[in-house]
Design a protein that fits this description.
The chain has helices at about 25-35, 40-45, 70-85, 105-115, 120-125, 130, 140-150, 155-170, 180-185, 210-225, 240-250, 280-290; strands at about 5, 20, 65, 90, 190-195, 230-235, 255. The protein is mainly alpha-helical and about 290 residues long. The protein folds into two domains: about 5-100 and about 175-290, TIM Barrel (Alpha-Beta Barrel); about 105-170. The strands form three sheets. Strands 3-4-5 form a three-stranded parallel sheet. The protein starts with a strand and ends with a helix. The structure holds zinc ion (ZN).
Length: about 290
């Protein structure tokens, strides 16, 4: 199970988050796995229903799953995976799916024009000296000053500034997949798109009514985006609940995934399929022992 896949050289998240794996590390791990064990698609498992109930404990295959629908899953990982023949399961949080990202120039100019530029944005990007007479400048010169600071800022400062500014424009999550990208993942023969709720709540403490409301909204939105009913679900933070499992059953989901420090065996119920967190020590250890 992967979260962010970043490429420190080409933008993206870089190694800032503990859940972010640089693209090269992901490719190394997947390559290592693929040499030893087949990387399966959910279709292959669906066509061979005994697969999940095989009595032996041999490692027969691996599923590569990606949570939260980060844009890098589509832009960096999914294409290379198609090329390599590595299927992926992409769990989408439908509330995070947003339109194509707005350009930084457009966002800054629009916020200045609308009088919505404020001191908090300045402190993120401008040096103290550059902030001091900022209010005296006209919009055109304010824009120039911000953009020159932006282009000389570090990769991670640019990334967090961009997220903040695009968020102000109503592009709440410019780092997540767009509708077109969700559709493209769905339409690829190799990959599978699964559901990861609408608003990424911690389900074990969520009331039944709110759970069902979130899940209904998520399913509606994913159907609208892809035209297909998903068969797979992943619990946010790996936390399952009875209300969720009941909803999954009612909506004919085939399987749901949690997060553990071990892999699947036929002893695991299909709504509690364990996964390794790819950024965890246990995963790295497991890969190194392959
Ligand atoms: Zn998640």
């Amino acid at each position: 199970m992967f979260h962010q896949i970043g490429d420190p050289w080409k933008g993206g998240f870089g190694p800032a988050s503990e859940y972010c794996m640089p693209l090269d590390d992901f490719l190394d791990a997947a390559d290592r796995i693929a040499r030893k064990v087949p990387i399966l698609s959910w279709n292959e498992i669906g066509e061979n229903s005994q697969w999940l109930s095989k009595p032996d404990d041999n490692l027969d295959g691996v599923l590569l799953t990606f949570d939260d629908g980060y844009r890098e899953h589509y832009q960096l990982a999914s294409g290379i995976m198609l090329h390599q023949g590595w299927p992926g399961i992409f769990f989408i949080c439908t509330g995070f799916v947003t339109g194509d990202a707005v350009s930084i120039e457009h966002a800054v100019a629009q916020l200045l024009h609308d009088g919505k530029w404020n001191h908090t944005f300045n402190t993120q990007i401008l040096s103290e000296a550059a902030q001091s007479d900022f209010d005296q400048l006209n919009h055109r010169n304010q824009f120039k000053r911000i953009m020159s600071a932006y282009h000389s800022a570090s990769e991670s400062a640019r990334s967090s500034f961009y997220t903040e500014i695009a968020g102000q424009m109503g592009h709440q999550s410019p780092n997540y997949v767009s509708p077109v990208q969700v559709k493209a993942l769905t339409d690829s023969d190799l990959h599978t798109v699964g559901l990861h709720t609408h608003s990424h709540p911690y389900l074990p403490t969520l009331a039944e009514q709110s759970t069902h409301a979130d899940l209904d909204a998520a399913l509606d939105k994913l159907l609208q985006l892809t035209g297909r009913k998903p068969a797979l679900f992943a619990y946010p933070y790996g936390g399952s609940s009875e209300a969720t499992e009941q909803w999954l059953q009612e909506n004919q989901f085939q399987a749901a995934f949690v997060t553990e420090r071990y892999g699947y065996t036929p002893k695991n119920p299909l709504y509690q399929i364990p996964r390794f967190d790819a950024c965890s020590h246990s995963f790295k250890q497991w890969v190194s022992q392959l």
